[in-house]
Amino acid sequence: MTGEWAVARPHRALRPLVARYIGYTQHGMPAGVHRGLPSRFVTLVISLDEPMRVLGMPIPGESPLAARGMVGGMHTGPALLEQAPFQSGIHLELNPLGAHALLGVSAAELSGHLVELGDLGSPALAALPDRLTEAPTWHRRFEILDETLGASLGDGDTGTPEIGWAWRRMLTAAGRVRVDALADEVGWSRRHFGELFRRELGLPPKQAARVLRFERAGAVLRASGRVDLAALAVDCGYYDQAHLTREWRALAGCTPGVWIAEELPFLQYAEPGADADSVA
């Protein structure tokens, strides 16, 4: 298997809403299924080749999807994608609190769903797969994304300040923070806090914390290939190894050991929070 990766941060005006752009080209991938895992982001993925095929949606029972551009909200189950021998595209990591400003649709409306880019109602967003495919370099593709997202940026509203503060606290703690403590710190009842949090991010705070703990465990595994699951469970805020394994079955659709064997050899780009200024 051979591959090319290009990782960059967006224009500084977009950085509060877009974490980074990840470009990729991979040859010789084994045919199979790739698990799109829950994360802190609303994700926008654009293929520079054939349409991407989603075989299993995060919400069971929803119809499969094939598209060259799609956006997915925060979710608590895996998206199962066909893994072709050759694939090339760009993956964007979006702050869920900025989804409406960037895409014209809220994180709550996207939660648990994958939506074709052309269905968002923006001709500029719908044109991105063709424009990016025609661009000659990663640098130019990232410039097109800056231009398109900057032009489509709405009023910049990123929600209620208290929810933004609570979300940042949860991110910093990788989900290891009590929801009632956050509600107390902003001076709201737990019920009011939970309702507003879900309205703005698409998941209730307890479910969002689950996703962040899971994401943290995945980051440790990617960084080190670590297989001491008992120690990993403690590090990531689980009660024990059995709790970790149950959560992985629910959120990834498999155990950590199965995921390591299936996916880890092919995951090469940097984790959230890493320096992402390089374009290769």
Percent range of helical residues = 40-55%
Strand proportion: 15-25%
SS-derived structural category: alpha+beta
Q: How would the global form be characterised?
A: globular
List keywords for this structure.
280 residues; alpha+beta; Jelly Rolls; six-stranded antiparallel sheet; four-stranded antiparallel sheet; 12 helices; 10 strands; 41% helix; disordered C terminus; AraC_XylS_family_regulators; AraC family transcriptional regulator; HTH_AraC; Homeodomain-like_sf
Summarize the structure.
By secondary structure, this protein is of the alpha+beta class.
Describe the structure.
With 280 residues, the protein is an alpha+beta fold. It has a domain at 2-154: Jelly Rolls. It has helices at 99-103, 107-110, 123-126, 128-134, 138-152, 161-172, 179-186, 190-201, 205-224, 229-235, 241-252, 256-263, and strands spanning 2-8, 18-27, 32-36, 42-47, 52-56, 65-67, 69-72, 79-83, 87-94, 114-116. The strands form two sheets. It has a six-stranded antiparallel beta sheet with strand order 1-2-9-4-7-10, covered by helices on one side. A four-stranded antiparallel beta sheet has the order 3-8-5-6, with no helix packed on it. The longest helix is centred in the C-terminal third of the chain and has 20 residues, at 205-224.
